[in-house]
Write a structure and sequence with these properties.
The complex is a heterodimer of chains A (about 525) and B (about 325). Chain A is of the alpha/beta class. Chain A contains 18 helices and 20 strands. In chain A, the strands form four sheets. Chain A has a six-stranded mixed beta sheet with strand order 6-7-8-3-9-10, sandwiched between helices. A six-stranded mixed beta sheet of chain A has the order 16-17-18-13-19-20, with helices on both faces. Chain A has a four-stranded antiparallel beta sheet with strand order 2-1-4-5, with helices on one face. Classes of the chains: A alpha/beta (about 525), B mainly alpha (about 325).
Chain lengths: ~525, ~325
């Protein structure tokens, strides 16, 4: 334990339970003046919930926070902010149409005697706060003309101007280039010298050597440990992050057809803006009938984009070849993909999967309209019959088929999404994070359903960032890193360590060397 | 336990226009008691004739609002379609260069009105789905363009004397029920079926409810919207023919501000402007409520200035009640 001085902000034995999930169970975290504590853990380990507690967005069920040794309670984000705690989110929170200075003083603009905004003073003060961090930054320019790194700097300066003493950085380097990240690390060192205490969340373990003083590790909402960073190896960190006892795999393929259900050849997806690197690079893969292929990767690895690209969502930006159901080429629309026997149950069911105000029946029947009538007409009773059968098969718990799906639980909403795609009788079912935000019971049911579908000969491509899920359900696992396939494992060979190692971005130095090699 | 297939009570309770229906019933009873002219057959037929045009527009507006869009151009489209139909009827189409003339009877003129409306709606649809213009902006521009074209076409003067058979479409009646009421009643049935029992109808609700989810479910979002704007335009064109026929005159100022009445009717009928929620039958209720209210205020000799204020208040109350009941869900 690194003690010495008492922490600026300490969380003790924090627990938080959501319906069906214990998000945090007795977690502690210490933030010390002038030191950076790296918070590590897989997706779903409880990092976000813990940050929510520290910033007043989440009220813990038990445990306490201490600021300068005194117990504190943050009933609102505002209270935490006033106590000097600031968070820089992965998605930055700046109004793009306002200037740097206007953003920094949003809601507390300095006023003249006539109660008008005192622009001169605002610019002057903004410049004073920016000067030690980024003297070249002009506070009078609009924030949408800045790079992501510059916007981050503005947010940090804003936090400091709000007299923040504790700064939480949530994956700050995920959108930065090598040089920008290096500049950020310089900034972090400077903040340490100003006695700011920091929490730093990242998946890039290689960065830690430059900046971390302490590390805290969470796993499945449990506190695994806090220790000084000096002397910890990368392998030890990975083991602590994933180190649960993996249940022995008991499954074997029930359907051992060798007939290929889906083949993808050299699929690439260009970024929406020209000149940016490819989102998906030359991915080739195949799924045989009855096989469950896992696609593991961290956030931002291009998993969802890969599925959507081969489903025909971005025709003008996609290149390569997809072969399914006797069709070869690239789909020009999801409609064409569905016709060929592809199905895609998307990741964010509320945003892109469901029409929340519509009934269970309407949602289930949407992708399979041809089944329910001829020449453009739809038989409501045929829709209801299919929706009834499928929701019974998937054990959807609902008051009635006419209930708006908004009123169902997360797990049942997910089952409605799956029912929608089963109604299309797919040859290949692609499922993107099918159990995110789903309670434990429904999770098991969804896993069983995928196995049963595979046994019936459906090819399944499962995207997940949850290691235990990938290991428990899949026959074969592909790892996606920065839009490229980086490794492939048979289920029997795969371990959490191997998968995570293949998924973690290569270090900045390595990436740099790689880029230099490519340039030559 | 097999899932329960029907659950009539919650369905009835969640039927949004129910409150508008209750308001309508209350209004009808109140007016029947306070005036002796309201509850007469003649007055009832009068109300039906008055609401026909707004109902015709409101059906189209329902479709567009269901898709998550808006059509501000219907009033101007009504005027242009009426004017073109009237001039075809009076002068026919003259292709001087080819030495060629086409003459129209009343039915032909109706078809011309429909076609003009559909064509303008098609332009709206292209602007919105291909050029990705916001529906508000695209149809606002069309509001101005179509009105200007109407002025150009008519030179600013009404076209009158359109012939007896054409006038009968708007002013005649069958079994004492005005012809426009028969026509719009048929449209209500037709569009109720189109929205509730066809694939396009399902797609329309899906696009308005969650466009991305609809796209990923294989819905051709662009085509669904384009059809919607064409239908809305065609209905506005038909409304233009009805107006011209009833007055036996196509005036260049016909339909000014009608888009607002039809939006009001659709909203009072339980639709949300964000899309995916609403029905044709709800729009019927909305039109009836506005029509009965207007009629009643006239019979009660309320100043027309107050009528406008009261209409606005009714819209606010209807939508506020709707919002409150949604929060309860």
């Amino acid at each position: 334990m690194t003690t010495g001085e008492s922490p600026l902000l300490a969380a003790r034995d924090i627990s938080k339970r959501y319906p069906g999930v214990q998000a945090l169970a007795g977690v502690s975290l210490n933030i010390r003046a002038g030191r950076l504590n790296a918070l590590l853990g897989e997706n779903g380990a409880g990092k976000s919930t813990l940050m929510g507690v520290l910033t007043g967005c989440v009220q813990p069920d038990s445990g306490e926070l201490r600021l300068d040794g005194q117990p504190v309670h943050f009933p609102s984000p505002r209270a935490a902010q006033e106590a000097g705690i600031a968070i820089i989110h992965q998605e930055l929170n700046l109004a793009a149409n306002l200037t740097v200075a206007e953003n920094m003083f949003l809601g507390r603009e300095p006023l003249t005697r006539w109660k008008l905004v005192d622009h001169d003073r605002m610019l002057h003060e903004a410049r004073a706060w920016l000067a030690p961090l980024a003297p070249q930054l002009d506070p009078a320019v609009r924030t949408d003309s800045l790079s992501i790194a510059e916007q981050q700097t503005v947010e940090i300066a804003k936090a400091l101007s709000l007299s923040a003493r504790v700064l939480i950085l949530d994956e700050p380097t995920s959108a930065l280039t090598h040089q920008e990240a290096t500049a950020l690390f310089g900034l972090i060192k400077q903040l340490k010298s100003q006695a700011v205490g920091m929490v730093y969340i990242t998946h890039r373990l290689d960065e830690l050597a430059e900046i971390a003083d302490d590390v805290t590790i969470l796993r499945d909402g449990q506190f695994i440990g806090e220790q000084s960073f000096a002397g910890v190896t990368r392998a030890e960190l990975v083991r602590m992050m994933v180190g649960r006892d993996v249940e022995p795999l008991t499954h074997s393929r029930a359907n051992d057809s060798t007939e290929v259900a889906l083949e993808v050849r050299e699929l690439s997806l260009a970024a929406p803006k020209a000149g940016r690197p490819l989102v998906v690079k030359n991915v080739s893969l195949s799924v045989t009938k009855g096989e469950i292929v896992g696609l593991f990767g961290l956030m931002g690895a291009g998993r969802t984009e890969l599925l959507e690209a081969l489903f025909g969502v971005y025709p003008p930006r996609t290149t390569g070849e997809v072969i399914v159901g006797g069709v070869r080429g690239l789909f020009v629309s999801p409609q064409a993909a569905i016709q060929a026997g592809l199905a895609l149950a998307p990741e964010d069911r509320k945003r892109v999967g469901l029409h929340l105000d519509a009934s269970v029946t309407r949602n289930v029947a949407l992708a399979s309209q041809q089944r329910y009538g001829r020449s453009g007409f739809v038989s409501a009773s045929a829709e209801e019959r299919t929706a009834g059968e499928l929701s019974q098969q998937l054990q959807v718990k609902m008051p009635s088929l006419r209930t708006p799906v908004r009123n169902l639980s997360g797990g049942n909403q997910q089952k409605v999404v799956l029912a929608k795609w089963l109604a299309t009788n797919p040859r290949v079912l692609m499922v993107d994070e099918p159990t995110r935000g789903v309670d434990v019971g429904a999770k098991g049911e969804i896993h069983l359903l995928l196995r049963r579908l595979a046994a019936q000969g459906v090819g399944i491509l499962l995207v997940s960032s949850e290691l235990p899920e990938v290991l428990a359900v899949c026959d074969r696992i592909l790892v996606l890193r920065n839009g490229e396939l980086s490794a492939q494992f048979a289920a029997s060979d795969a371990t959490e360590e191997k998968l995570l190692t293949a998924a973690l971005p290569v270090s900045n130095a390595e990436r740099h060397a790689h880029a230099a090699r490519e340039e030559n | 336990m097999p899932p329960q297939l029907t659950s009539p009570m919650p369905r009835l309770a969640s039927y949004a226009p129910l409150k508008s229906l209750a308001a309508l019933v209350v209004l009808v009873i109140a007016l029947s008691v306070t005036t002796d002219k309201f509850a007469t057959v003649d007055n009832g037929l009068n109300v039906l004739r008055q609401i026909s045009v707004n109902l015709c527009l409101s059906i189209g507006m329902t479709l567009v609002i269901l898709s998550g869009g808006i059509d501000l151009s219907v009033g101007s489209v009504l005027a242009l379609a009426g004017a073109v139909a009237a001039s075809c009827l009076k002068k026919g189409l003259v292709f001087a260069a080819l030495g060629f003339e086409v003459h129209f009877n009343a039915i032909g003129a109706v078809a011309v009105g429909l076609l003009v409306g559909a064509a303008l709606g098609a332009v709206n649809g292209q602007l919105i789905t291909r050029l990705k213009l916001p529906p508000f902006v695209a149809t606002l521009a069309m509001l101005s363009i179509a009105r200007g074209l109407t002025m150009l076409h008519t030179g600013g003067y009404p076209l009158t004397g359109l012939g007896e058979s054409f006038a009968r479409i708007g002013a005649g009646s069958l079994l004492r029920i005005p012809n426009p009421a028969w026509i719009t009643a048929g449209l209500v049935v037709l569009f109720h079926i189109l929205t509730q029992h066809t694939r396009w109808g399902r797609h329309l609700y899906a696009v308005g409810g969650n466009e991305r989810a609809a796209l990923l479910s294989g819905v051709n979002v662009g085509r669904t919207k384009r059809i919607t704007y064409i239908l809305c335009g065609a209905l506005a064109g038909l409304a233009g023919v009805l107006v011209a026929a009833r007055l036996d005159s196509a005036t260049p100022n016909a339909g000014v501000g009608y888009e607002l009445d039809s939006i009001a009717a659709v909203v009072i009928g339980g639709a949300t402007l964000s899309g995916g929620r609403g029905t044709v039958l709800g729009a019927v209720l909305g039109c009836l409520l506005i029509g009965v209210l207007n009629n009643g205020l006239v019979l009660l000799q309320v100043s027309p200035f107050w009528q406008q204020v009261i209409k606005g208040l009714v819209i606010l109350i209807a939508v506020a009640i709707d919002q409150a009941s949604k929060r309860q869900e």
